[in-house]
Predict the 3D structure of the following.
Amino acid sequence: MNILENEEIEIQNEYIKKLKEIINGQKYYILTMGCTLNENDSEKISGMLEEIGYQKVEEMQEANLIVFNTCCIRENAEDKMYGKLGEAKKVKEKNNAIIALCGCMMQQKHIIEKLNKSYPFVDIIFGTHTLHKLPEDLYKLIITKNKVRDVIDIDGEIYEGIPIKRTSNKKALVTIMYGCNNFCTYCIVPYVRGRERSRKAEDILNEIEGLAKEGYKEITLLGQNVNSYKGSGYKEIYNFADLLRAVNEIDGIEIINFISPHPKDFTDDVIDVIKDCKKISRILHLPLQSGSSKILKLMNRKYTKEQFINLAKKIKQKVPDVVFSTDIIVGFPGETEEDFEDTLDVIRTVNFEQVFMFIYSKRVGTPAAKMENQIDEKIKHERFERLKELVEKQLEENNKKYIGTTQDILVEGVSKNNKNTLTGRTKTNKIVVLDADNSYIGKIVKVKIVSEHMWYLKGEMV
Ligand code: 5AD
Ligand code: SF4
C-alpha cells in the first residue's frame, strides 16, 4: 500500500471513531448477491460496520441500516435487487432505516439514473472502487441528511487494512487481484470492476499467515482471472505459480482453492505447482463457456475446443487425482444446434465433476448485446434443460466412483437438515454427511464413503 492509500484508510478510521459516538447498538442487515468476490467485499463492509458499533441481524425488518451488495452478471441478479428494494422501502418507512446500495450494479450509469429517478428513497450508493469509504459516506448522510452518491469509474486503488468480519472461522476468502482485462464479449465484469490490479504478495502472505495463526485451515484465493496474477519479486514471487508455492509453505493452512483461472493462461508452471503441492484442492475450475470453436471466437475466449480438451488432458496426465468443474453459457448469439452439440461433446469428453450452467443474458454495453442472431428464449431454455439432463446423469455416475473410497474431509459443521449429523467436503469439493460428534468440527478426518445421493455423499469415520 502506498502513502496515499495509507492516509485514506487513516481518514476512514477517523470517521469510524466519530460514528462510534453516534451509532449505539444499532443493527445492520447485509444481503450479498453474486460471486465470492462480492462475499469477500461484504466481509469488509461488515468489518467496517461492526467496528463502528453496528450489530448484524439476519432479518431485514429488524435493521436500522440495510446494505445490498449487488451483482450485474446476469439480468436475474438485477431483477432480484429491485424486488428486494421494495421490501427495504417498507422497512425504511417502519424503522426509519438507512438504505445503502453498493457492488457491481452501481458501476453502471443507466442503473444509477434509474435508481435516482424511480427509487429516490435510496440513501447511499457507493461503487466497487469506493467500498473503503463507507464510514465517510455514512457519516456525511447522518450529519447532512443529504443523499450520498459515491461512485467513480476510474480503477480503484488497492486498500489494505480495512477491518474484516469473516463469515466462517475455518475457511477464509482472500482476494489476490481485482479487475479483468479479458473482455469476453458477453461479460460486464471488465466494465464494472476495471482493469487487472494485483495485491502485493507480502500483503497476501501476511494475511494468510495471520489466518493460519487464528486457526483457519482452508483458504480460497480470489480474482476474476487469478492466473494472470503479477508479483513484484518479493520472496521471488513474480506470477501465480510462485504465489501458490509460497502459500503452500504456510503452516496451519491445509487446503488451498483458487477461483477463477482462465484456460488461456493455465501455464505449465501452474500445473507443476498443483502436482507438487498436495494442499491445493483436487478440483480445478476450468471455465469452458462453450464447446464450439466458432462461438468461443465470438466470445473472445482465445482458445478452441481442441485446445481446451488438450489442456484438461495435459493436467489430468500430470496430476491424475485432479477433477474439473466448469461454467457453461447456453444460447450465446449465433449458437446453432451444431455449436450446442459441441458443448455437450466437451462435457462428455472432459467429464466435469461440477458444471455451473447459465442461460446467456444480454448485458448493456457489452459487444455480444449488439450481435445479430440473438437466440430465442424458448430455444435457450430447451438447450439448458438438455444440458442439465446430461450433467445430472454424469454427476450420478461420478458419485458412484466415490463409494468404497476413503477421503480426507474437513468437517465444517452440523448439517442443515439433520442436527444429528455433520457435513464436510472432500478435496474435490463433494459434500459429505457423516455421523460424528461436534468435537470433530474444524478437523480433517478420514471418512469411508458408503452411499451417494446426487447432491451429497454419505460417509463413515474410519
Ligand atoms: N450471461 C450468462 N452468463 C454469464 N456469465 C458471465 N456473463 C454472462 C452473461 N452475460 C457466466 C460465465 C462466467 C460466470 C461467472 O458467469 O459463465 O464464467
Ligand atoms: Fe468476464 Fe471473461 Fe473477465 Fe471472466 S475472464 S470476468 S468471463 S471478461
Remarks:
- The longest helix spans residues 377-402.
- The radius of gyration is 23 Å.
- The chain has four domains: 3-150, 168-280, 282-400, 406-461.
- The CA atoms of residues 85 and 119 lie 8 Å apart.
